[in-house]
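Bug #77: duplicate submission created two jobs. Keeping one. Sequence:
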Amino acid sequence: MQTEQLFADIPCIDSKESDSFQSNITEYKPKTLLGVLRPQNLKQVKELIKTANNKQVKIYPYSSGMNWGQGSKLPLADESMLVDLSQMNRIIEINEKYKYVIIEAGVTQEQLSNALKNTCFKVPVTGSSAQTSVVGNILERGATGFNIRNSLLMGMEVVLGNGKTVRTGMWHFFKDDDSSENKFLTYSKGLGPDLNGLFAQSNFGIITKVILKLLPKKEGLILHAEATEKDLSSLVDILYDFNQTGITNGWNLITNKNDPRTAVNGQYKYAGEWIALTAIEGATPEITELLKKEALQKLKPVCHFIDFISTTTEQDKYNNPYFKILIDVYNGIPSNYSLETMAQMTGVNLNGNYSIDENKEMVGFSVALPAVPFDGSTVVKVNSVIKEISVRLNVHPFYNFGSLDSETFEGFYRVYFSRTDETAVRLAHEWNKEVHLTLENIGIFPYRTNIDRMDHYVNRKEDDFWNTIKDLKSVLDPNNIIAPGRYCMM
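Kept job's structure:
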């Protein structure tokens, strides 16, 4: 009997038709796939886990599969059955009284944004694509614009590898048919151990639903400041001070002007020109104005350009459309602008098709995502490491930093390359490996990692942290059926 026939009651793409699922924008080598399961509901997820245990089938779940630069849909282990959760895309409840939303794993950024359009609330969005999964990004602790989305996680519904279904936080105390008036779910810690963090970047179960805290839509100002390389360290330290003193809302993006999103007239060459973006959100317009004046005074010594963009009025004065996109992002409206500008680098017209993994004309993308301390001298030091490796390998790097929390940046270092040029692919992969190893030597580790580097970080038998993760895996997924090797010893 073929593997896919074991899951006869669940929609499935067989192994012969699943070749396209191997495609990935980083050009990682393909794996042997047994097929692709597409469960429609919680019952089918439970059934497929039961069958996978009985027949010892490895399963690899994903929400939308758009984990670009990290492997996309590819599992770590050969002979795996993919589990595509994109069909589980219901927005189950928007609770305006207690300010939360319950969504399934396949809900996209665009879908959730549209559902909240006529409310007073929003959920932060990433700058990647409107079609990406909200839950997938949260489980990778990904960065979002103008707020930290993974900090809004209130609860999860998880089908464990052992077949049990767990709801975290306060959720497990309530039944689905309980009145929302009496269902208070926003205390994420719950009673007893806080399990929410256990299921992010792990392989203990399949996450089918999450509860997210909703943020109020509010007027603010986007602070846009520009500085040169010599003042980058001082600029970072000033922004850190803004976070600590409450001048800004705690989120920051610092990007070089050669970034495809901000480059003008195809000027992709690194020229040492930096853009800083953050938000000022006073409790009243008067307080916002005072915070604006304070920010202006402190930035003037290091920035040659400072502006404040209203988040409620479209700005027509900018030639660069990125600043209009930022207003949307601030208001919780995602776009495909990042993908469009990546495509423009090589003259590709996506024509509304954002399945970039399958499009070989689309530029390749290799990325390193170190957790970089929010400290000016450290940012400059990490940049110099990237520059040295890139010059030596003759590749063209792009840099920017986005807030992961009040103390940490996501270093978003990447190179783009031709996917049909074997030498370019090899150099991009070599660059990625060297960046990770060299940064590790100076005490900088990734906050998330790709399938090629996963084993290097987690397969450390002398590390009691990873041994404890392995012990948990043996209890929660005793047959090791769910994503073997993903953030856990193989």
